[in-house]
Amino acid sequence: MYSKLLALLNKPEIYEGNEQPFWDDKHISKMMLQAHLNPTLEAASRTAEFMDRSARWIAQIAPPAQFKRLLDLGCGPGLYAQRFYRMGYTVTGIDLSRRSIRYAKDHAHKEGMDICYVCGNYCQLDSKEMFDLVTLIYCDYGALCPSDRREVLRRAYASLRPGGRMILDVFSRAHAERFSAYQVWKHCPDGGFWREGAHLVLEEGFLCPEHVIGRRIAVVTPEEESVYNLWNTCYTPQKLQEETQAAGFEVCGMYGDVAGAAYTEDCDTLAIVIEKR
Ligand SMILES: C[S@@+](CC[C@H](N)C(=O)[O-])C[C@H]1O[C@@H](n2cnc3c(N)ncnc32)[C@H](O)[C@@H]1O
């Protein structure tokens, strides 16, 4: 028992992946959708109030009149996509979660919104369409391993017309500096976020070199044990600038968040507006 548990809790190599799905897991995606749809909860999506402000700001710096065709990477259940559509963009959203895409499509159909939702991996994006604006919102970029980050930027760049823009956000270096390592366990006899039935969660959060935050979550049920590794690379403006420039983009602006706050070294996030020249 002791050695089995230790093996589950063994710290992973940096950016080690998962053997089973996370975003598209049948139960986890259900819990995630509930979190997305809670307008006051800052968890899977930010609050509705923030998303309203954020969409308005995006429409100011890349107005639909000049940046009509918008591609939202990691659109989830379409909370931003709906807002963009109402502002006059022609919207395509892509997401890994079948449950979120199903919800997004049903919602668009009910509301009579002509939004194109696609279930897929944006690291394998192979769009025949050209876009004027690409968004990747809520720090998803930093959750990717370095090769996936290069891939998503390369593919976003290829899908933009010259002069097209991309907007993304990440956690900042200050966020990593405020982070404290932790170890917690939780018993969920009636099910919870990770499993529908009884389960035990053993979780560790740790800081790796280069301001990468790692989380190792071991989920133990009466029938099986699984582990999940989640990552967040935290950025300085310089590091984000270097990565996006390496993909061919030119930097138009840096902000403290995707609602256009001024960036200071204390900001928890960092948002960048980049352009294909
Ligand atoms: C933190 S949520 C943010 C959702 C949305 N951008 C928002 O702000 O409401 C991250 C989303 O990205 C999706 N996702 C993660 N990795 C992905 C990938 N490689 N390809 C497509 N979608 C992905 C997840 O399924 C999830 O819906």
Features:
binds S-adenosylmethionine, alpha/beta, globular, four-stranded antiparallel beta sheet, Rossmann fold, 2 domains, 30% strand, 277 residues
Commentary on this structure:
With 277 residues, the chain is α/β, with parallel strands linked by helices. It has two domains: 2-14 and 175-232, no CATH class; 37-171 and 235-276, Rossmann fold (3-Layer(aba) Sandwich), CATH 3.40.50.150. The protein is 31% helix and 30% strand. The chain has eight helices and eleven strands. The chain has helices spanning 2-9, 26-36, 48-61, 79-86, 98-111, 146-159, 173-178, 237-246, and strands spanning 69-73, 90-95, 116-119, 131-136, 160-171, 182-188, 199-208, 212-220, 225-233, 249-255, 269-276. The strands form two sheets. A seven-stranded mixed sheet has the order 3-2-1-4-5-11-10, with helices on both faces. Strands 6-7-8-9 form a four-stranded antiparallel sheet, with no helix packed on it. Strand 7 and strand 8 (212-220) form a beta hairpin. Helix 3 crosses helix 4 (79-86). The longest helix is centred in the N-terminal third of the chain and has 14 residues, at 48-61. The radius of gyration is 19 Å and the shape is globular. The N and C termini lie far apart (58 Å). The model has no long low-confidence stretch (mean pLDDT 97). The structure holds S-adenosylmethionine (SAM). S-adenosylmethionine (SAM) is lined by residues 23, 44-45, 74-76, 79-80, 94-97, 100, 121-123, 137-138, 140.
